[in-house]
Amino acid sequence: MLNEIFNACETNMQGSLDHMHRDFKTLRTGKVLVSVLDNVKIDYYGTPTPLDQVGSVLAADATTIVVNPWEKNLLSDIETAISAANIGVNPNNDGDQIKLFFPPMTVEQRQGSVKNMKTMGENAKVSIRNDRRDANDKIKKLEKEKEITSDESKSAQDKIQKITDKYISEIDSILKEKETEILKV
After folding, report:
1. What is the mean pLDDT of residues 96-103?
2. CA 130 from centre of chain
């Protein structure tokens, strides 16, 4: 019974960590990532279709993304969709492909990205603490219903705290690495 609570708690905490990693993909670091185009949808024969399903999307270098559509008649639709997405750059259509040239990040932009990253990390920590509270509530309920002793309850809550500490310290180290990556020129 306690092992189920431990496993569920750890699974939820891992989910919070994974969510933080997904959020990080939306951050701009020193080099541009193709994930900035993940929310861009193209009207492909009446169906909103993700950009990466109508052509190849590649990061040519640290500041350039190249979109090469599989059907050349989609170039203007892709160009319009990227412009409408307002990702901070204007698409350049050369007749064969679309290039997006991202300017180098300023110090202020880097600091803004770090601030957003820390907020994402803090949200993950709050979620992990909520998972800890939920697990501890389940353990206290078992103790109240006399299914476990008070000693078992105490040791189970200590184990939940150790799991929590492990995930919080993992988030802290990830945040430190990511901050270094973002601020590096």
Report:
1. 90
2. 19
